[in-house]
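TASK: fixed-backbone design
INPUT:
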């Protein structure tokens, strides 16, 4: 008869997400994971398939939360919703602001050394989702402008994704969730000038 679990699976994933976010994948050992998640090595192996399996679970948790809560308003919104998203990147208490930057940005940078196809795929899917949300919001803005917009939707969306990455890197480098505020202000002022008149 199997022993009952002494931990909550979802809670362990959430704690692992924070631990990997702070320390990265390679720098965080299994013992560190044990301490920060409350689950032992055996459970990490049997429940998640090892450290990499737990890391992938954490990445999926992080991605789903960001897409469901922070990106979602852009599906039906327009430039004001993009501006709100950017503002959240440097607003203390926001789900997307952190002195650790962004788990997906950090993973992408670290994976330049690791070269894991699985990690590359997960991060690529995340940035594609963000790009798609930007495209949707910009297309909605174009409709408000009666298709007389002076911007190229695809190029602007791609540029905005790069800006998000840069803001997170600056936040992490300075260990200050408001460090990227100057770039956010620049982007938001630019976008504000593209909005349809109210």
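OUTPUT:
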């Amino acid at each position: 008869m199997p022993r009952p679990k002494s931990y909550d699976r979802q809670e362990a994933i959430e704690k692992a997400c924070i631990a990997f976010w702070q320390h990265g994948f390679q720098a965080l050992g299994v013992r560190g994971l044990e301490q920060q998640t409350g689950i032992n090595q055996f459970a990490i192996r049997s429940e998640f398939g090892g450290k990499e399996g737990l890391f992938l679970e954490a990445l999926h948790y992080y991605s789903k939360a960001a897409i469901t809560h922070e990106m979602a308003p852009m599906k039906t919104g327009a430039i004001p919703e993009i501006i709100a998203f950017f503002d959240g990147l440097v607003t203390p208490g926001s789900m997307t602001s952190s002195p650790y930057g962004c788990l997906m940005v950090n993973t992408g940078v670290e994976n330049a050394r690791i070269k894991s196809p699985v990690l590359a795929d997960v991060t690529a899917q995340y940035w594609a989702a963000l790009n798609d949300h930007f495209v949707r919001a910009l297309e909605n803005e174009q409709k408000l402008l009666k298709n007389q917009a002076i911007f190229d939707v695809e190029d602007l969306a791609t540029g905005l994704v790069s800006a998000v990455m840069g803001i997170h890197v600056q936040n992490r480098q300075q260990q200050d969730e408001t460090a990227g505020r100057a770039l956010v202000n620049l982007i938001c002022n630019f976008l504000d000038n593209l909005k349809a008149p109210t």
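COMMENT: Residues 170 and 180 are 6 Å apart (CA to CA).
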